[in-house]
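Sequence only, no structure available. Ideas?
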Amino acid sequence: MSDGQFEKSFLPDSNHTRKKRLKKRPRVAVIVTVVLVALLVLGAVAGVLYWYFTDSTNADQSGEQSGKVVRIYSGHLNLPNAQYTRQLENPETTDFKELAEKLEQVINTSCKNLDELSSYFVNSRVFDYSAGSGLMAYYMAQFEIPMEHKDILHKFSEDALKGALRRTVEVRRSFEDKKLTITQMTSSLTNPDLVMIPEDRTCYHTYHAKDTDMTFTSPGFNKDGYPNNIHCQWVLRADTDHVIYLEFLDFNTDDDCGNDFVMVHDSLSPAEDDVITKKCGKRPSSKHLSLMSSGSVMLVTLLSDENERFKGFSANFSQRVKMRECGRTLTELSGNFSTPYYPTFYPPNMNCVWTIKVLPHLKIRIKIEMIRMEEPGTRHGECTKDYLDIDGERYCGDHPLISVKIERPEAVIEFHSDESHTDKGFIGYYKAFDPRNPCPGEFLCGSGFCISTDMRCDGWNDCGDMSDERQCDCERDQFTCDNGICKPKLWMCDRVNDCGDNSDEKACECPKDHWKCQNGMCISANQSCDGHKDCEDGSDEAVCTNGVNICTEFNYKCGDGSCVNKANAECDGTKDCEDGTDEANCVPQCGVRPFKQQRIVGGTSADLGEWPWQVSLHYGRLGHACGASIISDNWLISASHCFMDQYNDPSKWLAFGGMNFQGDPLAQIRRMKQIHKHQRYNEETYDYDIALIELEAPYDLLPKVHPICLPDTSHIFPTGMSCWVTGWGAMYEGGSKSMSLQKAEVKIINDTVCSVVTEGQVTSRMLCSGYLTGAIDACQGDSGGPLSCREENGKWFLAGIVSWGEGCARKNKPGIYSRVTKLREWIREVTKL
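Reply:
I predicted one. Tokens follow.
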């Protein structure tokens, strides 16, 4: 979830299976005198090629029914010689029907000329019109491909696709009777559930915006909430040379965007290329979602499934005069610039240029406070879509602070947004300064920038290089690092170097003649291994070599009842029990990475075979939904919250093993035989959030498909230990899931600290891992995945299962995992492992 919204579970961001709404065939079209020629066919080929080549990366844009894969692409036709009238808003009028029939025949003829692809074409529909440079007609084309014919993909090369998409379709042919000319055709992959043909308009509304606010709400708002299985659309139209301003005053849907969501398009076509944003969850009343269109129309769609009902939304909209110019020359000594309509979401298709020019003897400082230009499918650092360019350096994604110093009196700033997916943008400030006296009356940062003296030593990195937080007089609830930085006392002794010089961890060890218990308590050294439990947790007797046999929760208990005075004795390759039980119950060669030769939020892409126990669980046609870990050839371990309600049907799930990239054709795919959720799982607290999955057929254990070791109940994963979280979940809070497996290194956090920062919400079946400073964490879609920890013997053990968290990678909000050691006996009971 974004914008500070609370999020407990890390469920997927994908569309749920819905009933098909595109089953009707169009009426027989009237034969037109002249049909579109070769170039229109090329446009259709471009769309179809795009449709085919996005088969694996856009699985949630398709549907499967009766053994067929449904593909829809939609777009618009530009008719410059036609005029828009109100009659074209009603599909029952003669004007609507006659023009639709003629355009549908043109599209049908083009699609039937696609050689080998034509046999998969079903129909096309024209479903709406709007004013433009003449008339805009919106259409969809439907294809159905039998599952056994999917191998046709190999007939198209990547070069052919790129070449077709580069071409702009410009067709100039006229209908003899109406003298209508089509000058442009766009096409884009479209989610079948978003298309509403005229006959299905059971929840369809069209409004003409005014200069003052108008309001609309979702069905059942402020009553029982919107119904299940609903598909509603609101068409918003503005006058020529105006744009639509839309603001959601209340917003409350399911927090899993696969269940219920609102999608806004910068067009009356619900095509992927025209999406402004897709939102779900509950937004606080103090943070309204506000959006702008780039033209005179906007489409709002609400979809719901069969889950519980939610309140829905209320929204205001109005029209505003379209911005003709964006950017200007700035000559004042200081000023600001921002994305159009900031803090409202900036519109698509914008280009702005600001040129800062000051006196020749001056230089320029530029400070951007929070950039929000996230776009699904775009990795941080790859600024090829929406971006901010400051003097030749591009920025995009999500940044809390950017400071740039220009060593000359002139700077050029550019902003670009493409045709889809917008965000809040940014506001930037600039100030000219004299290099001889750079910060009159202000604090000079180490980076050369100036901030108000009030920002000095306030605990926030206002300079961007921490120079404003060094050599400070710390508050009572803060710890003074040796380098002068102030940090919360809560962060002390968590085995994480928060100060940067490790001074927050220096005073945490016991004196030389003392023993440190696992819970942090210090005892005299001669009390360790003396046959008595002097530490409250018994850890002073856990690792002893004097033959004393004391059993604590940290000792491995052998089958004959004796205990091993050795840390983490199980599955380490050494026989420590006389009866050999410490090695007997280990899955053969668990916890090794045979494919590795040498060598998430804030994460990086994993190498092939680096995490061979990682599994991607796919629900129905939705693609990746949750993660899991292989613990034997026929058993997986995941989180209970992934399988609640309708998700509890094992026949609807597939488990993909040995896969780094979603859509990998070499992955091992297995069906589920049975899902075992812990009988004490609590949906409110996420206690006992663990599930075991029995497969219908076992995996072939190969280098890229290999089990992780299960820890014994006595296994210790100490505070500060580095472990790894992996998954295909969102790469930032509120973002879309990753197509490649991500990995991130995290630290085990002290249980006491974990309880404090979560306000007592953790139980003994949970553990915290991450960083209290934020930035690295699991996120939505990582649920059920592993927290993998490597022991000194080189084997990897499953310490935790991704369970819940407050947002993703927030400060003082670490990730919460199900603690496997506390659930080990239940695992043994179910699986016999």
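The chain is about 10% helix and 30% strand.
Hope that gets you unstuck.
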